[in-house]
Amino acid sequence: MASGGLQLLGFVLAFLGWIGIIISTAMPQWKMASYAGDNIVTAQALYEGLWMSCAMQSTGQIQCKVYDSLLKLESSLQATRALMVAAILLGLVAIFVAVTGMKCMKCMEDDQVKKMRMAVFGGVIFIIAGLAALVATSWYGNRVARAFYDPFTPVNTRFEFGSALFIGWAAASLAILGGAFLCCSCPRRETSYPPSRGYPKNAPSTGKDYV
User: Fold this and answer.
1) CA–CA separation, 10 vs 29, rounded Å?
2) Rounded CA gap, 148 and 96, in Å?
3) What membrane topology does this protein have (predicted)?
4) CA-CA distance, 122 to 116, in Å (whole number)?
């Protein structure tokens, strides 16, 4: 029962992490900057994400523009996109594999060892998906930090970490933690002992002594 509860907890955490990765990928707030002109009315907040850039006026109006061409984007942004999409697809595969190996499901009940190995395999895929999202968000955050501290970057165009990055970091951590819990349900190998040798029984005495 304890391993089943740990398995269920791992799946829930990994699933929530996968949902967070999707939300982080879709959000435009990967990096943000605020700019205020001579009049506070002209203040606006700028957001840039993986798919679009947005500008929010002080009046609350938000205008977003999808990136025109994929080929015109920076290679680092394209790589970040690819890693996040790969993390989402891997998480989807991990869900189906882990559900098959869950103890609460009736699939593969005739072979419990293979069933538990499916859950472990799903946990491994969740860990890979979490690592892909973690690499993508950390790489993007490093680029934002380097541009912010670059003395040649204009003050009005310096971006900071957006909320999508923090969500991505938390989601990747949940996916890795949940995958690790699923891997803890790995079936232990039973120690096999050699069969004990029986001692020969003494032959019944016939009452005759041979010389």
Assistant:
1) 29
2) 41
3) Multi-pass membrane protein
4) 10
> What are the structure tokens assigned to 199, written together?
């001692």
CA-to-CA distance for 27 and 50, rounded, in angstroms?
8
Which residue ranges in the chain fall short of pLDDT 70? Answer: 1-3, 34-43, 104-112, 155-156, 185-211
The set of residues, in sequence order, having a beta carbon less than 8 Å from that of 198 and lying 6+ positions away, is none
Q: What is the pLDDT of residues 106-164, one digit of tens each?
A: 665 666 677 788 888 999 999 999 999 999 999 999 999 988 887 777 766 788 899 99
Distance (Å, whole) CA 143 – CA 137: 10
Two structure tokens written together for 185: 């349900």
**What CATH class has 4-27+75-184?**
mainly alpha
Look-up: residue for tokens 């304890």? 2
Q: Model pTM? A: 0.80
Residue 170, token pair as written in the block: 């938390």
The secondary element (H helix, E strand) that includes residue 210 is none
Q: What is the 3-state secondary structure (H, E, C) of 122-166?
A: HHHHHHHHHHHHHHHHHHHHHHHHHHHHCCCCCHHHCCEECHHHH
Q: For the residues of 21-55, what is the DSSP string, one character each?
A: HHHHHH-STTEEEEE--SSGGG-EEEEE-SSEEEE
Using CB atoms within 10 Å of the CB of residue 87, give its burial: 0 to 12 exposed, 13 to 18 middle, 19+ buried: buried
Q: Which residues on adjacent β-strands are paired with residue 56?
A: 45, 62
> Are the C-beta atoms of 123 and 180 separated by less than 8 Å?
yes
Q: Reduced to 3 states, what is the DSSP secondary structure of residue 111? A: coil
